[in-house]
Design goal:
Chain A: Pfam families: MbnB_TglH_ChrH. Chain A: This is DUF692 domain-containing protein. The complex is a heterodimer of chains A (318) and B (228). Chain A is of the alpha/beta class. Chain A contains 10 helices and 14 strands. The mean pLDDT of chain B is 89. Classes of the chains: A alpha/beta (318), B alpha+beta (228).
Chain lengths: 318, 228
């Protein structure tokens, strides 16, 4: 048994790798539906929260079957992955149990290849008897053992509940140097610890890395070097804009050159990546227009094809 | 390093409550925290504006900005579900509006439509009314009084005419999840039944209107109560 065979066996037991799908696009209800069946994309990334309504007379959310059927029609039989926004997996008190329950129903209705969430917290229990309440904006976790353990415990529960790979997305923030302790040196170390103890993978968002490099002085290349790239199951690219000297993670435009460069660097080093997605917000997709989106997808396709062809030739990466 | 819950509370507090007097959690960027506050504030304002477009359209620009800003300052604008945000915001706004006024009635109308539309998407078991049953108002329905004909209100909203004078008691709309389009004019007997059904009433006293209002989700049968 070669070294790369041994690594494969060890990893197979602890982390179910995503199947290779290719180039993806988020499901955006207002986008021209023809884009999804044009052959430009191989899979669709669904945020199930946008197919939900609040549960009347009780807390929580329920799937709107009408919205779900519309989405299914638009996607035209393409494979899907889930990218959630409501879980708040890092909240010290409770995560969003209602999201988990909704996702179980969603999976029964429309199975997905893998699912992902953002590594942050967006609800807080202020000990005022009201329970968890929305903060209104996602916030980053400190790089501590307590935060890593909180998230890892939950990712293991997600693995048991859903039986498909679960990926955590590295976040963008504007807060400078985040607190760290317990020997956790940096973001890569923090992410690796969660993945190893929580049996999950990463959704590596390259625009978020770029934002943190610009805004907080983080070393994007250094993070990539230190991250367990064998755990990267999906990659996001996106655009953003500038405000008061900060780079905003606003998903409102085309992918900037530094993010394309990061993709070119990191993609061939991620042996188990299942897909790359151009992320854009619904409002901005309308403004950007289908022609620009098609160009972004074409460039993404070219990079994906080039690196996957190289990977096929390498027995350790194939 | 503080406990995770303490760290999160301190950070959330610093982001939710702007102002120079608020302490910044140790080590974090002051300018970055200020930007995070602005991003949050902008998101919250956007959620509120999307949640109640009809009611906000009737207010003057100054009133609109003031009322949205006050709501966000009180902690509103954080729900990602627009129905949840709309329910809470419109309840808040309704207490601020003069009565009777077009703003007040359109606010109530918008809230009623959002409730009914939400309920219309849910799979719910409707127990049909029998003549012996008791019936009461459904929480997903409302009877809304407009103070002018709908056409005149729409023209005023479109700024093609001045707001009509307040005219009480003549334009009552039934809003319920089972009505096609969610809204229709209410008949005099339906108006009387709606008012009576604030508490359970015998269906036979308003038959057959009680049967039709239960069928369209405006009323519900009361479980376990015998009307005889």
């Amino acid at each position: 048994m070669t070294a790369c065979d041994a690594n494969r066996v060890a990893d197979r037991d602890i982390w179910r790798r995503p199947a290779p799908l290719g180039v993806g696009l988020p499901y955006l209800p207002d986008l021209d539906a023809a884009l999804y069946t044009s052959g430009l994309i191989d899979f669709v990334e669904i945020t199930p929260d946008i197919l939900c309504r609040p549960r009347y007379g009780a807390p929580g959310m329920v799937l709107d079957m009408g919205l779900l059927e519309t989405a299914r029609d638009v996607c035209g039989g393409l494979p899907i992955v889930v990218h959630g926004v409501e879980l708040s997996i890092g909240s010290a008190g409770r995560w969003n149990d209602h999201y988990v329950a909704m996702l179980e129903t969603f999976q029964q209705e429309w199975p997905f290849a893998w699912h992902s969430e953002h590594l942050h917290f967006q609800t807080i229990d202020m000990d005022d008897g009201c329970g968890e309440r929305d903060i209104g904006v996602p916030l980053p976790l400190p790089f501590t053992q307590a935060a890593a353990a909180t998230v890892a415990n939950r990712t293991r529960r997600l693995n048991a509940a859903f039986g498909v790979p679960f990926l955590l997305e590295n976040g963008a923030h504007y807060l400078g140097r985040l607190p760290r302790s317990d020997g956790i040196r940096d973001e890569a170390h923090f992410l690796n610890r969660i993945a190893e103890t929580g049996d999950c993978g990463f959704l590596l968002d390259l625009h978020n890395l770029h934002c943190n490099a610009v805004n907080n002085g983080d070393d994007a290349a250094g993070l990539i070097d230190a991250l367990r790239l064998d755990r990267v199951g999906e990659i996001h690219i996106a655009g953003g804009r500038w405000s008061d000297g900060f780079r905003l993670d606003s998903h409102d435009g085309r992918t900037p050159q530094p993010v394309w460069a990061l993709l070119d660097d990191v993609l061939p080093r991620c042996p188990h990546v299942g897909g790359v997605v151009f992320e854009i917000m619904a409002d901005h997709a309308r403004r950007l227009g289908p022609a620009a989106i098609v160009e972004e997808l074409g460039r993404l396709r070219a990079i994906w094809t080039r690196h996957k062809a190289v990977a096929k030739a390498d027995p350790c990466l194939a | 390093m503080p406990r995770l819950s303490d760290y999160q509370r301190a950070l959330a507090d610093a982001v939710r409550h702007g102002g120079e007097d608020r302490p910044v959690p140790p080590g974090l960027s002051v300018s970055g925290l200020a930007l995070t506050r602005r991003v949050r504030h902008s998101w919250c304002m956007g959620r509120v504006r999307r949640a109640a477009p009809l009611t906000l359209a009737i207010l003057t620009e100054d009133d609109r900005e003031e009322i949205v800003a006050e709501w966000v300052a009180r902690g509103g604008g954080t729900s990602s579900f627009f129905e949840t945000e709309a329910e809470a915001f419109l309840t808040f706004v309704s207490r601020r509006l003069d009565r009777p006024s077009h703003a007040s009635s359109l606010c109530r109308f918008e809230r009623a439509v959002i409730r009914a539309r939400g309920a219309s998407t849910m799979r719910r078991l409707i127990r049909p009314a029998s003549i012996d049953s008791m019936v009461q108002r459904s929480p997903h329905a409302d009877l809304v009084e407009l103070h002018a004909p709908v056409e005149q209100l729409l023209e005023a909203l479109a700024k093609t005419r001045r707001w009509p004078a307040i005219c009480e008691g003549s334009h009552r709309l039934l809003v319920a999840p089972g009505i096609a389009g969610l809204v229709r004019d209410a008949s005099p007997v339906e108006i009387a039944l709606w008012h009576a059904a604030e508490r359970p009433v015998p269906a036979k006293d308003y038959w057959p209107a009680a049967r039709s209002l239960v069928a369209c989700g405006a009323l519900e049968t009361v479980a376990g109560v015998d009307g005889c």
